[in-house]
Amino acid sequence: MKNIHARIVMGTMMTFSSLGLMAQENAEMLTPADSLAKQEVNVAFRTVNQKDLMGGVSVVDMVKLTDKNYSTYSLDNMQSLVGGYNGQLWNMGDALILVDGVPRDANNVLPTEIDKITFLKGASAVVLYGSRASKGVILITTKRGREDGLKIKARGNASMFVPKAYPEYLGSAEYMTLYNEARANDGLSPTYSEDLIYNTSTGNNPYRYPNVNFFSSDYIKKAYNRYDASAEFSGGGKYAHFYTNIGIYNVGDLINFGEGKDNHTNRMNIRGNVDLRLNDWVTGWVNANATFYDTRSDNASFWSNSATLRPNRVSPLIPISYVEENDNPSWTLINNSNYLLNGQYLLGGTQLDPTNPFAAMYAAGYNKYTSRQFQFDTGINLNLDKMLKGLSFRTQFAVDYATSYNTSINNNYATYEAVWNNYSGKDLITSLNKYNKDSSTGTQNVSGSAEKQTIMFSGQFNYNRTFNEVHNVSAMLLAHGYQQTISGEYHRLSNANLGLQLGYDYKNKYYVDFSAAAVHSAKFAPGNRQAISPTITAAWRLSKEDFLADSPIIDDLKLNASVSMLNQDLDVKATIDDKNVEYYLYDNVFTSSGTWWGWSESYGNSMQSADSRRSGNDKLSYIKRKEITIGLDASLWKGLLKLNANFFTTSTEGLLTTPSTIFPSYFQTYWPVSSFLPYMNFNNNRRTGFDFALNLNKKVGEVDMTLGVNGMYYTSKATKVNENVEYEYLKAQGKPIDALWGLQSNGFYKDETDIANSPSSSFGQVKPGDIKYIDQNNDGTIDSKDQVVLGKWGAPFIFGVNFTAKWKAFTFFAAVSGNIGGKGIKNNSYMWVYGDRKYSEVVRNRWTPETANTATYPRLTTQNGDNNFRASDFWMYSTSRVDLGKVQITYDFPKNVFRNGIVKGLSVYLSGSSLLTIAKERKYMEMNVGSTPQSRSYNLGLKAEF
């Protein structure tokens, strides 16, 4: 495998090097680099001058951004830079990610490789990409060679990651005390004796009386590191330009014992491209990228176990120094053990926990995840001016291939439980119980093999021409499609469409654009798989009108509006038997029942019924995104202030459901399970909001300052819902589509009299100290019919702020993001403690008869606590927060320092990420339960040019 790896790396490097040498032998200019060198922005299948953008489009210049804000993820902190973005575009859902026009993962292209990122938010901006782009497109364009001659840039970084917080769980003595209390609350006898609790509390012998803290410095480092380096090579001449980026990084791990000490992630990538000019009318390009990714991890599931394994359950290590000298059977076990740590410790375990994360960390082996990706695309531009002035043809073809698999060493291991006695005040081990056995074959197991292939093709005729210097005409006729084959999935993921774009502007003052796509989807029945998605956009540059032409305030002012109707199949899916199903939802489904009833034919042959599970619907069709947007672009006071704002209202119509409300009740039965209900386009949602991006540029003395403020305010409503509810307040129709539903709490039950005088609970028997709820319908019973809207999961208002100050050779950059108005439910295992769950510090504020007036947590219980632990405002919290996402200080050494040396430029920078969160629930939001903790990071970097 190492030889294959090396050959691929060397082959790829030689390919890019030879292309680079070929480029240097010539001299002058190229293709996609041509447009990028201008103030032009990549949009769907073309470039547009930034001042002429319409229809909800934002762009980030990653070259300039990375010079002052080094990051390791392509979309890091984008909320602080782009209005209407919070991980989604206009809260529509997951956007389509395109890298150089091909569907690819955003995490497989690093910021140092990127030229620009375009955020296509409006329906009119994404229509040409077809139905799978209906939730927005993030178009990532990688760097290209633009300048003559050879230019080399190198960058190195060292980062330290420091955990923000760990969960706070109770120690063994406190846990056992409170667990006994929980059993008493349930009318049960105590599990743990007073002597056991006392001896555990002293901490004199943690091997006999374990008190395990997963987050102790015995197991966890204070920080872990990441190191990365990259080098960029670019250059060219008249007939070719090239660009190559080679990068590598290594990331460590927090775990500090056993196999965890060797946990790490390595990544190496080589990205390159060549732009070619064969003659005045034929140009082309080739892009390629190879990524080698490996992760080594232990087999212990340490972080997930940290949220479940109680502190008194097992002693991780058994010291052999406590074993009696004359206990020959125990010494025989010790001498035959494969895992005697440091010659002093056996791996601990119990009959209930014969395997545990601590023993597994030392003895269970490790897993190595390996991923390889190769991406290739190429294209040709033909200038057809000789046939028709302004006419050109462009085609692109791409093939991406990714493979991944796991190789692992899986060992079996024995654990030991000590039987302790005390002789004259000294604890000794009188015998050992062994569970399992040691076996290490050394065999490397291969599993989890997966493959993914993407093939993309596009071809388009473009027409761009200006008549009489005032009439600017553009047109595009497009054929575009891609297909992804993913192992384990029967159906390929496909997108195919034709596109048409017609544009006209008069003196860059009056604009009109018509774009449409003819889409195709195999998710629908034959004869119903095609649809047309039209959009029309108009714009008016008021600043060119006579009444504003001489304005001392307004430099540029443009209004635009668009009306769109997209057909999409992204939401054509359903969950059936806990599986996500996207295809054949239009078809009839019959199954052999397997139910309790049937009949016997002659000769004793048993027959069963064929049951209908779903009726077919040949008319099942696309879900429609109907949208109206109004946009504003302004530049004021000679560029001092720039504003981009967009108002949007989007109606998503025809979401799938089985509309039981429009069919007779006998179309569906629950026993035996049978249904004649078809999937239909029925439910509708509406989203309304506006986004904005405000940038202030000002020089104060010797300091150049830029302040950017971005944000979005957003509301939503379910305008049509298939529902039949008994009470008006239970209707989802008219409520936010991200409504948070739950019960309204009314304190705790005080005593048995309070319980007797309150509505009965359908969630099991309640006792004093349980949560009491409001009976919304006054029917005397607390049940699901008493749920109301408590708030919204999504934040109505999101915002971001970025600030840059440049003084002499110093540059300061900061990014802030936040959201206001969202709600959440504290429903993880840390907050919902019942049964045999691990106890966190929140239970200290539990209800007891003595704390009835001050308690903030329900009574403890060893039962399921179904009444207490369900969605209600008792557990609701505000998700409003403000995050200081990034601060960086950069120093650029003066150019004259290097004179005519090899080094042409040098910069050093210091940065911090995720530095501060301001929120009422900061402690809860910064704490991960059952997974690797969130971290703050600090980075020292160096960049050089040659």
Topology summary:
Layout: H1 2-24, H2 33-37, E1 40-43, E2 46-49, E3 57-61, H3 62-68, E4 96-99, E5 102-103, E6 114-120, H4 123-126, E7 137-142, E8 151-163, H5 172-185, H6 194-202, E9 224-236, E10 240-251, E11 264-277, E12 282-298, H7 302-306, E13 317-319, H8 328-335, E14 345-347, H9 357-363, E15 365-383, E16 391-410, E17 415-423, E18 426-435, E19 444-467, E20 471-486, E21 493-506, E22 510-520, E23 530-541, H10 546-549, E24 554-568, E25 574-576, E26 579-581, E27 589-592, E28 598-600, E29 606-608, E30 610-614, E31 623-636, E32 641-657, E33 668-670, E34 673-675, E35 680-700, E36 703-720, E37 739-742, E38 745-748, H11 752-756, E39 760-761, E40 771-773, E41 781-782, E42 788-792, E43 797-807, E44 810-820, E45 823-825, E46 876-878, E47 881-892, E48 905-918, H12 922-925, E49 935-945
Parallel strand pairs: 4-7, 39-41
Antiparallel strand pairs: 1-2, 3-6, 4-5, 6-7, 8-9, 8-49, 9-10, 10-11, 11-12, 12-15, 13-14, 15-16, 16-19, 17-18, 19-20, 20-21, 21-22, 22-23, 23-24, 24-31, 25-26, 27-30, 28-29, 31-32, 32-35, 33-34, 35-36, 36-43, 37-42, 38-40, 43-44, 44-47, 45-46, 47-48, 48-49
Helix pairs in contact: 5-6
